[in-house]
Design brief:
This protein starts with 59 loop residues before the first helix and ends with a helix. It is 56% helix and 0% strand. Pfam families: DUF1275.
Amino acid sequence: MAQSPPSASPPSPPSSLQSPTTPRSPRSPPSPPSLHHVRSPSVASNSSTPTLIISPFDSPLRSQSSSIIDEKRHHQDQMTSSIRSSSRFMEYFNEEVAGAHSSLYLLVSFFTSGLIDSVAFNAWSCFVGMQTGNTIFAALGFSGQPLTVHPNAYLKSITSIFAFCAGTLFFSAMHRIPCWFDPNPTPSRRRFILIVSFTIQTTFIVAAALLIQLGFVSSRPSVSGAFSSGNHLSDLPNPEEEDNYKDLIAIALLAFQSAGPVFFSRVLGIIELPTIVLSTLYCDFVADLYHLPTSLRNKKSWYSFFFNDERRQFRRLGSILMLFLGGLVGGFMFRSLVGMVGALWMASGLKGMMVVGWVLWKAEKKPQEEGGV
């Protein structure tokens, strides 16, 4: 059987009719991310994929150095802020406090003086503030009088006098620290000095109260002929045979701190209010009563009468009443359950409140502020 010839394959269309095929270029690796994407000028505007050029400023080294600079600036800002805060802090505590109405501190000091002296005399037969009475007690002791007291009782008065003088030297030197090298140093009313002064007074009262609280010193009513009267924890079996010389420690502490308010009255320039004695105060108050009718006739208003014309008189009267009130409160507290130690804790609390008061007290106006500059 004859085989059919192989069919010829249809001719391929001409090359011009073939669909053009564009060879695909291999995919380029993705470019690293950059913050600044810049279109290459060599690429045509109708190109769908712009070419990205990495800026040399976007390197990791540049970013790291920028963060270091930012951290340094932040640290410098913090240091500057801290220095400014410290400067304001020092300026606040170095400024002079205003003298207006500061006599209120003297009135409170009169009360605490009466409170402490009343319980001290009731337990130890001596004063820790009024050194005039102690001087008489010491003189009587050297002469062997009175016969009803212990032969060495005058040591309490001597201790109180010397401790008071030491406290005066201390507080006087402390108030003169800012102008210590001046030819004529004058006492200062700087805030930090007053805070330290009244803090020391508070600390000494607290120390004396702790000695009494722990039973180291006498705290019961004084016994005739005995040096010590016994503490609140236990009675002495034979008071006339027991000489507890630790009482002198508490006396010295309280006498030392009592010099602080006295010198503070000198700092304020109110010498007429010494906070511990009333003899000159009684004299000045009674002697100036002759001016009272004239002040009443010439008064412009009652406010002017009380706070301008007769301000000194009412301040004297208030000081007398506050010392008396302090002694009265001390007497009632001594015979109550709280006893002598309760009165001392009350006095220390009042002193502590005065410390807080000096922290918040307004400053003295500077000359430019007063002149409106």
